[in-house]
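Q: what sequence does this backbone want?
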């Protein structure tokens, strides 16, 4: 089968989302299908362009008019699908439902092309809390047209437990893993305790709870043990207090532990691997309840497990809730109990290879294969 994987943005080397999309494409290809990756990005000359596998299929030019055209013009994508015999379009939602997209997918469906949309996070409206109006306006448009858009889909792919989203049935899968892309954790034994988190920092990551836990630990134990929190991430480009970056700094300042919070900025490749190897424990999301989410299967948890490093998180994740190498934090605003983490580290010595092996069934080949099976057999009951 010929599949077009449609993305409404470009890619970056340090972005976990970018890596995930390429792994998903790889997973589809491993299932024996011909997959084309369509995305939107800027060319070297500054032009806004739409690409398929690195080849420009639409050049919108520069300036405000080009920005408008890039959001309104999908004729080139439709033509590509027709000319190349595309049988299925797998789109990754950018929370951007609009009359243009409704029309585009309706035309695809009328041509007999199966359409599927992945909603990466659900529900997602609360994630826009605190953003300036210019960033919230697209969400208002999305709210008006999301049901009409999903009506054109065969199904909605979700990493939640929702049985339907915006009126359309769901295909419930897990975020996947790609062992080939991540090296095994090689922890460096030392007296100091080093913790690591990787993210584009938003308020729902709740890293301030970990910082507050460190602060309370030192408040109760004086100097105590040397604990350092390494954050490999960056501030949300929309620059609002809702991104969580400012909250982390404010919390560290409140407790006087700024020197124990180490911001590495954007890292990837060997530099990122080196930070992981210097740490013995990883920090997942600790504030998903802040955006109204209780059940989610985050990419972060799976990347930690694939590397083979134990970790903590606060949401419900059925793939990990019963695993011995995780700590479940309460889904509230309490500071994280550092004594629990320290005791966990002191009394456990998990083998990175065994942690990785525990998520072998989450390979993207398997997860994307489930999507194809369900969408090609719409009457077959679906269950993980």
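A:
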């Amino acid at each position: 089968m010929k599949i077009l994987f449609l993305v409404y943005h470009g890619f970056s080397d340090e972005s976990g989302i970018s890596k995930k999309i390429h792994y998903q494409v790889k997973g589809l290809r491993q299932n024996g299908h011909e997959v084309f990756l369509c995305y939107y990005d800027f060319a070297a000359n500054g032009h806004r362009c739409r690409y398929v596998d690195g080849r420009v299929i639409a050049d919108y030019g520069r300036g405000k008019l080009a920005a408008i055209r890039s959001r309104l013009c999908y004729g080139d994508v439709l033509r590509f699908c027709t000319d190349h015999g595309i049988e299925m379009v797998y789109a990754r939602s950018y929370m951007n439902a609009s009359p243009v997209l409704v029309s585009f997918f309706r035309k695809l469906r009328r041509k007999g092309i199966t359409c599927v949309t992945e909603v990466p996070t659900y529900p997602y409206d609360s994630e826009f809390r605190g953003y300036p109006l210019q960033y919230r306006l697209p969400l208002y448009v999305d709210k008006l047209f999301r049901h009409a858009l999903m009506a054109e889909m065969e199904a909605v792919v979700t990493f939640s437990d929702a049985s339907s989203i915006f009126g359309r049935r769901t295909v419930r899968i897990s975020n996947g893993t790609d062992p080939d892309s991540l090296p095994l954790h090689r922890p460096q034994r030392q007296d100091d305790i080093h913790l690591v988190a990787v993210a584009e920092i938003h308020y729902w990551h709740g890293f301030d709870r970990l910082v507050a836990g460190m602060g309370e630990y030192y408040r109760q134990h004086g100097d105590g043990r040397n604990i350092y929190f390494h954050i490999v991430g960056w501030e949300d480009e929309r620059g609002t207090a809702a991104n969580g970056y400012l909250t982390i700094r404010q919390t560290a300042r409140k407790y006087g532990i700024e020197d124990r919070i180490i911001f590495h900025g954007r890292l990837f490749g060997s530099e990122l691997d080196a930070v992981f190897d210097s740490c013995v424990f990883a920090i997942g999301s600790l504030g998903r309840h802040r955006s109204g989410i209780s059940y989610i299967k985050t990419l972060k948890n799976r990347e930690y497990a694939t590397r083979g490093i134990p970790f903590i998180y606060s949401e419900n994740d059925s793939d990990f809730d019963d695993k011995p190498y995780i700590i479940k934090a309460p889904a509230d605003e309490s500071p994280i109990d550092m004594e629990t983490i320290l005791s966990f580290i002191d009394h456990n010595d998990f083998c990175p290879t065994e942690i990785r092996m525990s998520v072998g069934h989450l390979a993207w080949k398997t997860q994307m294969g489930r999507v194809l099976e369900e969408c090609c057999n719409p009457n077959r009951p679906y269950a993980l």
